[in-house]
Amino acid sequence: MKKSLIYLLAAIFTVSILFMGIGCKGAVEEAVEEVIEAVEEVEEATEEVEEAAEEEAPAEEIILRFTDWQGGNDGILATYNDLIEIFEAEHPGVTVEYQQYTVTTYNEFLKPAISGGTAPDLFAVYPGPDVAEVVEAGALRDLVGDIDDEWKGWLGPAYNFKGMWQGDGIYIVAQDVWTECIWYHKDMLEEIGWEPVESTESFSVEDYIAMVEPATAAGYELMSAGFIEAWSYFDPYYNFVHQQEENEKPDIVQQAMDGEVSWQQDIFRNAFDVFVKLNDAGVWKQDALSMDYQVQAFGDWMERKSIFMWGQGDWFAGSMKEEENTRENPNIGIVQWPLVNTSAEVAFSKNFGTDIGVYAKGEYQDLAIEWIRLTSSPQAAEIFISYGCNPASGVDVSNLPEIESPILEECVKLYNSPGKYSEVYYFNADAVKALGDGIGNILLGVDTVDNVLAQLDDICGYEG
């Protein structure tokens, strides 16, 4: 079309000069060629201007919104800030807006946003019953088809976590992880005549009972615990059951919660007995039953009032006092949950802290998936570790980056170690609550093991 315009202008110019009396054919042809060249030069210049304008035109402005409950977690915040810089550089015109809420205020924002259709493009969901609720509401995208072999390889143990799955779908992807167990001050343990052990090992119930007297004589509490937070009951309870299973699958806890098998079996009764024995022997003081974990129990342990901390995980790796957590003085030890009996096998309570899912009704789902994939990558793993977090994905234990904190390095290696592991996230909310309340009531002396087990059968619908 442009060439036709050039020749049309040339023709008009030719006719015009003929009427003006220019009769020399050669002169006319020469003049026409000059016009064509001039017009072509103008056109080329115009095209260059148009191309430059297209290059300078801003790309579509997209805001990718992302929320979770990690308010106050500086390591997570710093990690995501670094990843946002990487993501935005790779996606011109895209801005990631990340907002942290606290654990107690998060659902006050998220659930109304989901019901009102205004949920962010990416959001965390509390693992367990909340995931089931949000999936049933149609608010989370199933990511099974989006996770290719490379991404699955990055996820490692996390890919099979019960908490990430709902039915046959993966709806949330783990971010930071932990191996929940018992932590202790090595020098205080040695002071009462016991040697530290490898992080993959465990003391027995009888070991802890035998430690009470020498700890008291040295002026220490043996174990800090905060049982007002019910997870401090049911997380280790699941572990005590899994220690006794010969095989990880089928998961007998899940079977009992689904009403497929009875709770009134020795494998479940033995797990209750662990709490009763430790409590009656004074392994923790009686007011532990009314103490919170994070402030009171953890605070006492940090101040070295006790040797052991019941129910600790990698989430507090960055909170250790520097004088106890240096290469010169790696004084914080890790030990697995107590062994139920002599035939039990250590089971690691591996699981995750925060997670990310994709809003199923979001406008930018493909971009949202790319963001989660980045957070699962080896590149992200190094960033998580640099800020004191144990990443769910992308870790090669044979090629770890330099880790300044000895306890964090121990946590990273422990999480990625092979072995039987115990789940802690179950979706049967009524059964989970009854289990936690039941253990507490037994220790307070207001209920019995037999009655709690029978109540669990009723709640879970076991018909015998």
Describe this structure in words.
The protein is of the alpha/beta class and 464 residues long. It has helices spanning 2-19, 25-56, 74-90, 106-115, 129-136, 149-155, 186-191, 205-217, 231-244, 252-257, 266-280, 293-302, 365-375, 378-386, 406-415, 429-444, 449-460, and strands at residues 62-68, 94-100, 122-123, 165-166, 169-170, 173-174, 177-185, 202-204, 221-224, 306-312, 332-339, 349-352, 355-358. Strands 7, 8, 9, 10, 11 and 12 form a 6-stranded mixed beta sheet that branches. A 5-stranded mixed beta sheet has the order 2-1-3-13-6, with helices on one face. Strands 4-5 form a two-stranded antiparallel sheet. The radius of gyration is 32 Å and the shape is globular.
Query: How many domain units?
Result: 3
Let me know the number of strands: 13
CATH architecture of the largest domain: 3-Layer(aba) Sandwich
- By CATH, the topology of the largest domain is D-Maltodextrin-Binding Protein, domain 2
Q: Would you identify the regions where 5 or more consecutive residues have pLDDT less than 50?
A: 1-23
Radius of gyration: 32 Å
Q: Specify the CATH homologous superfamily of the largest domain.
A: Periplasmic binding protein-like II
Largest sheet: 6 strands, mixed
* Overall morphology: globular
User: Mean pLDDT, as a whole number?
Assistant: 90
CATH class of the largest domain: Alpha Beta
